[in-house]
Amino acid sequence: MLTAMFFFLNFLAATQDIAVDGWALTMLQRHNVGYASTCNSVGQTAGYFLGYVFFMALESYGLVTLPGFLKFWALIFMIATTLVAVLKSEAGTDESASDEPDRGGWCRHTSSVVVGE
Q1: Please, are residues 36 and 25 in contact by the beta-carbon 8 Å criterion?
Q2: For position 109, what pLDDT does the model report?
Q3: Residue-wise over 64-93: b if at least 16 C-beta within 10 A, else e?
Q4: How far apart are CA 112 and CA 103, in angstroms?
Q5: Looking at residue 80, what is its pLDDT?
Q6: What residues have CB less than 8 Å from 24, skipping those under 6 apart?
Q7: pLDDT, tens only, 32-50
Q8: pTM of this prediction?
Q9: From CA 52, how far away is CA 44, in angstroms rounded?
């Protein structure tokens, strides 16, 4: 049962990762698409630092407990998600632009081979 739960959670995390990467490619302007992977890497590193190193430092001084830490970040995630849902709007595309963002290098050549562009 535990294996099935972890498989399901990893499946959801992978699905979210793919969806967010796709969303980032549609939101970013063509000349900023290259920054998507940089932001992803910086975000993962910051998340690891806050979730482990920062928590361990605060917990070792008795400033926070695990339940309190998790409740705090759950609240932050809910607020951030609500703000994105309310304040972020999708930009329309102009008709002169291509439907696909410029993915650059290898991806561009692969899609032309697979799709036949």
Answers
A1: yes
A2: 44
A3: beeeebeeeeeeeeeeeeeeeeeeeeeeee
A4: 12
A5: 92
A6: 36, 39, 40
A7: 888 888 888 898 899 999 9
A8: 0.59
A9: 12
